[in-house]
Amino acid sequence: MGCAGSTPAKGDVILENTKKLQKPKPWKHTQQMTRAQLKQMRDEFWDTAPHYGGQKEIWDALRAAAEADLDLAQAIVDSAGIIIPNADMTLCYDERGAKYELPKYVLSEPTNLIRDS
C-alpha cells in the first residue's frame, strides 16, 4: 500500500477484515490426552511463542484472550490492536503486520480429552 489512491498489494493486511471472535470448531487430537497433558502443551507453547517473532505484549494479549470468554477476548483483541482475519484466532496480525499463528489446542479443548487418572 502507498498513497490514498493505491490498492492493497497481495498479502497486505486490511484492518477491515477483522472479524468478531467465535468459538473454535470442535477438533480431535491425534491421540487421547488428559487435561494435565493439554495444560503442559499450552504452557510450552506460550513459553516459546515469543521466540518466533512478534511483540511480547501481543503474545501476552493473545494468551489472555485465548484463556478468556468470548466477550472479554474480543475486548482484549480490540484494545491491543490485534487484527483477526480468522474468527477462531488461529491467525492474527499486529498493527505492524507481524503474523501470529495459534494452534487449536491453546484455544479450545479437543473432543477426545480424557479424565486425569
From TrEMBL:
Top-level taxon in the UniProt lineage: Eukaryota
Matches recorded under InterPro entries: DC-UbP/UBTD2_N, DC-UbP/UBTD2_N_sf, UBTD1/2
Region (Disordered): 1-30
Classification via Pfam families: UBD (PF16455)
Domain DC-UbP/UBTD2 N-terminal per the UniProt entry, residue ranges: 18-116
Stated name of the protein: (wild Malaysian banana) hypothetical protein
Lineage: Eukaryota, Viridiplantae, Streptophyta, Embryophyta, Tracheophyta
